[in-house]
Amino acid sequence: MSDYRIQGETGEWEVVVGLEVHAQVTSNAKLFSGAATAFGAEPNTQVSLVDAAMPGMLPVPNRECIRQAVRTGMAIEAQINKWSRFDRKNYFYADLPQGYQISQLYHPIVGEGAIDISLDEKNPDAAGKRIGVERIHVEQDAGKLMHDQHPTQSYVDLNRSGVALMEIVSKPDLASPAETGAYLRKLRSILRYVGSCDGNMEEGSMRADVNVSVRKVGDELGTRTETKNVNSVRFVMAVVEQEARRQVEVLEAGGKIVQETRLYDPDRNETRSMRSKEDAHDYRYFPDPDLLPLVLDDAFLAECRASLPELPDAKRARYEALGIAPYQATVLTAEVEAARWFDALLDAGAKPAAAANWTTSELFGALNRTGRDIENSPVSPAQAAELLGLIADGTLSGSLAKQVFEVMLETGDGAAKVVEDRGLKQTSDTGAIEAVIAEVMAANADKVADYRGGKDKLFGFFVGQTMKAMGGKANPAVVNEVLKTALGDSVAP
């Protein structure tokens, strides 16, 4: 149970949130035509006769779109309905050539499922919640009106008309901005692992309608509003907070919440009324007469299930079983590209715990600093495994490894080549280290006396001076052992 509350003048209010996420299906074509779906194409260059609703053009379901929806349902352990049906949702708008949208209202392809979220990223096992998913249905997208191309007219771009969408409808189980953000991030991660949606919210391939209501603690559900087409996790969380506060202010002033559709203005961080909310019967749904029901056989379902990859929760559990800390396992599995890169690092022979420490600190830090993503990392998993191997066998100290890594980032060379070319190999030569320590002690006789007089903290000073004198190439473990002997045995008379 979330402890998030809005403190009003009349007491505390709870927030109730449900999300309807529209995820563009990754496929080779649109839902009912062979037209392409590439982002950023010139207006009206990806429009078939079916998409433009030319007379006599009949829709034909795209098998890959259906397959991806089924795989997504399986990934959230949802009920897969072997029998489903397409309906016509009738409304008239300039960007909807048919005058109706083909959707699934009464018999969706995917039934109830659930998504587990964590509310504490630093300690993923500390707090969690299961969010119910009511259904996933498949539908076609509408086109897009362009209001900024002409001073007095609006243009229409039908490139998106007929693009396949999965509408993923949560139950009203979310109770705070934080829970809502965690749910959306987890859903996006699952979709990207499965490969059914690229999750790119900036390009509109994933967007959310945010249903928000408020109630006094323990009361019946209040009237909800729906804020449409929110295209970032941060904005979705802002909508929950701002819309809930607005509703509390209206109710405490004696007003009523109207069930309506609203829009979010990120510049002003507020929601605005768009239109009153129509009920389902206003759309005059009825079965699409041009499409037979979808009937899925066991062989198709078995192929879908067999094609699923290892999903985020299972991968995180596997990493933890390898000795990787829970927080690092969560970071490594949050994005599918990072998880694939790390798996390749393990396959190249890197030790799991050391590899996780290095990846989440050194590699991710360098990528953030240079503005790269892991798919464009100049250091490959095999090269990283070579670097970690040189650290493990004592060839490189921690500080030398950082130097080698920086050169690898700049040049793309392997770790062994950098060590050879730059002469950065760590030395464990006891004789050479003893000679340098003797020089350091001779140059700091007063501090030697102080150390032997009880100032034990000076030991770090001698380590630092030795490492400095040897250009960071001395093996720290050997330096420590030799120093202990030298400072302990060479007692002044």
Description:
With 493 residues, this protein is of the alpha+beta class. The chain is built from 15 helices and 16 strands. Strands 1, 2, 6, 7, 10, 11, 12, 13 and 14 form a nine-stranded mixed beta sheet that branches. The chain has a three-stranded antiparallel beta sheet with strand order 5-4-15, with no helix packed on it. The protein has a two-stranded antiparallel sheet with strand order 3-16. Strand 12, helix 3 and strand 13 form a beta-alpha-beta unit. The protein is elongated. The relative contact order is 0.10.
Features:
493 residues; alpha+beta; nine-stranded mixed sheet; three-stranded antiparallel sheet; 15 helices; 16 strands; elongated; ligase; GatB_Yqey_C_2
Itemize the secondary structure elements and their pairings:
Layout: E1 6-8, E2 11-24, H1 63-75, E3 83-84, E4 87-90, E5 100-103, E6 113-118, E7 128-140, E8 144-146, E9 155-157, E10 164-170, H2 177-194, E11 206-216, E12 225-230, H3 233-252, E13 260-265, E14 270-276, E15 286-287, E16 294-295, H4 298-306, H5 312-321, H6 326-333, H7 336-347, H8 352-370, H9 381-392, H10 398-411, H11 415-422, H12 430-443, H13 445-452, H14 459-469, H15 476-489
Parallel strand pairs: 12-13
Antiparallel strand pairs: 1-2, 2-10, 2-11, 3-16, 4-5, 4-15, 6-7, 7-10, 8-9, 11-12, 13-14
